[in-house]
Amino acid sequence: MSGFAKPLKIALGLIVIAGLIVIPMNFNRYGLFILSQWAVMTIAAMGLNLTLGYAGQVSLAQGAFVGIGAYAAAIMTTHGWPLAAAIVVAMALAFAVGWVLGYPALRVQHHYLAFVTLAFSTLAFLVFRNESWLTGGIYGISNIPRPHIFGIATNKPLPFYYVCLASLAIVSLAVWWLIRSPWGRAFMALRENPLRAQSLGIDTRRYTLMAFAIGSALGGVAGALYAPLTQYIDPVPFNLSLSLDLLMMVIVGGAGFYFGPFLGAMIAVLLPEWLRFTEGYYLMLYAIAVMGLLIWSPTGILGILDRYMAARRTKAASALRAVAKSRLETAQ
Amino acid sequence: MSNLFDLLVAGLATGAIYALVAVGFTLLWQTSQTINFAQGEFVMLPAFLMLAAMHVGAPFWLAIILGILLSMILLGLAFKMLLVDPMMRHGVLPLAIATMALAIGIKEAVKQFFSAEASPFPSIVPTGDISVLGHAVSLQSIGVLVVAILAVFGLTTLLNRTSLGHQMQAAAQNPTVARIIGVPVERMILLTFLINAFLVALASLLITPIYLAKFSSGEVLGQAAFIAAIVGGFNQVRGAIAGGLLIGVLDNLAAAYVSTQYRAAVPMIFLIAVILFRPQGLLGRAEERTV
C-alpha cells in the first residue's frame, strides 16, 4: 500500500504548494493578510509543536516569544537594519530566553511547568507595555518597513505574502529534518519515557532545554515576520491569549503530528474569517466547533485521520493473515 | 499606618473572593483532573444571569436564587455532562484546551446576547463606612469578607465533618478503593461540580458590585484564582483559601508600594518562586490529592 501512497502524498503536497502560490494571486488585500497571518502563526505553532508535541513539555508562553521576536524586528527595522538581520537576532534572542525558561522544566513537570510559563507570559506582556523607552509602551511601534528582497520591494500585500510563505517553507523543511534527526528522536524519547531516555544515555537535561529553546526560537521567527506584516505593533496582541491560541492550534491540529500546526493554524486563523457572515456569532461558533472537535477527537484533527489509517491497516493486515491462514490450510 | 490597614482590609476582601474561586478550581482538579481555564468566565456569567432575571421583572432576591440555580445547572451539571465527561479519560491537556474554547464561547455569548458594555450591579451589602479600631472601613469589604468566610467555613465543615464530605474526599483520593467500599464516586464528582458552580455564583454576587458586570471581567479574575490555587497548594482546599487571601493582599500592597505598572508582576514572580522552591504549594503536600 505504501508503494503508491508515497508518490500520491508527494503529488498532493505539490498541488497544495502550487495552490498556495497561484490561488492567492487574485485575492484582495484582506484575504492576503489573513493568509499571511496563517503562515506566520503556523511557524509559531510549529515551534510549540516541537516543545509540546514532540518533547512533551507544556508551554503557555509561545505568544510571549512571538512578542519578543516582533519587538526585536520592529525596533531593528525601524532603525534601518535589514529584516534578515532582525530575524536572526529575534531567533537568537528567543532561543536564549527559551533556554533560560527551560530551566524550571528540569525541576517541575506537566501542569506546574505550564503555570511557570504562564507567569512568564504575563511578565513579558508587562515589560512590552511598561518599558516604553524601548517598546513604545501602549502606543507601540508604527511604520515598520517591509523588506526589499533581491531588490524587489515587498510593500504590496502579494509579495509580502510570498515572503511569509517562503519563510514557512524554509521552517517546515528545517523542522522536517530536525524531527527525523537523532535530536528529534531524542525529543520523542523524552516525551514517551524520560527515565528510559536517560538510561539510554540521552542527556535529558540538555534536550529538555533544547526543546524549549528551539520551539521558542521559531516563535521568535514568527514574531519577526508578524511585525512587518501588520507594520504596527503594540503589546495587546502578545498577551496571554495568544499563547493560549497557539496552544489551541497545536492541540486542535494534532499535537505530535508534523502537519498538525498547519491545520490547527488554519482552523484558528481562517475558520473565524469564514464564519464572519454570521456576524456577532462567529467567535461563539468557533468556540463551539473547537469544543465539538475535541470531544469527538481529543488528539485533534490528525488524530482522527491517524485512527482511521490504523483501523485500515489492521483490517488489511487481518485480511492478509486470513488469506495466509487459508493458504496454509489448503496446503496441508 | 492607616494606609496599610486600609490596604490590608481591601486586600483581604478581594482575596476572600479569589479564595472562593480558587477553592472551586482545586475541587475540580482533585476530583476530575479538570484544569478549568474558564473559571474566570464562570464567575462573570452568573452576574449576567441575575441581571437577565431582573430584566424580566424578578426582584433582586429572586434573581439571586435563580442566578445561583441556573449557574449550578449550566456551569455545574451541563459543564460536567457535556464537556468534562466525554473528555476526562483522554488526559489533562485536551480538556484544558476545551475549557479555553469554552471561555471564549461564554465571553462571546455574553457580549452578543447581553451587552458589550459594563453594566452596574446592585450590592447585597449596603454601601457606606463603619469605624473599626478608629479606621473607616467600607461595609462592602466587611460584607464580602463575612460572606466568603461563612461559605468557606460551611464548605470545610461539609468536607471534614460530614459523611458526605468524607465520601467526597475518598472519591478524590482514590476512586478505585472508594468505589469498592461503596462510595458513589460518580455522584461525588457531580457534587463537586455543583459546589464549584455555587461558589462561582457566590463570588460573582460579591465581586460584580465592585468591578461592574462586563463580559471580559473573567480574564483577570480567573488568572488571580488560578495563581491563588497554585500558590496555596493545588491539592488542598485550605491551601487555596490561604493562597487567595495572600494574592489579594499582595496585589493590593504591590499596587501601593511597588508600582501600578508592575503590580501584576508581583503575584507572578511570587508564583514562579513558589513553583520552583515549593512546587506542591505553600500548604500542599507533594503528589497527593485530597479535598
UniProtKB/TrEMBL annotation, chain B:
Mark the transmembrane ranges.
6-28, 60-79, 91-110, 130-159, 189-212, 224-250, 262-281
Which GO terms are recorded in the biological process aspect for this UniProt protein? amino acid transport
| Taxon lineage | Bacteria, Pseudomonadati, Pseudomonadota, Alphaproteobacteria, Hyphomicrobiales
Q: What is this protein called?
A: Branched-chain amino acid ABC transporter permease
Q: What family name appears in the similarity comment?
A: Belongs to the binding-protein-dependent transport system permease family. LivHM subfamily.
Which keywords does this Swiss-Prot/TrEMBL entry list? Amino-acid transport, Cell membrane, Membrane, Transmembrane, Transmembrane helix, Transport
GO cellular component annotations, sorted alphabetically?
plasma membrane
Which Pfam families does this UniProt record tie to the protein? BPD_transp_2
The keyword Transmembrane appears for this protein: yes
Identify the domain of life. Bacteria
Citing just one GO molecular function, the answer is:
transmembrane transporter activity
* Bilayer topology term: Multi-pass membrane protein
Question: Where does the UniProt annotation locate this protein?
Answer: Cell membrane
Q: Which organism is it from?
A: Bradyrhizobium zhengyangense
Where the protein is mainly located, per its record?
membrane
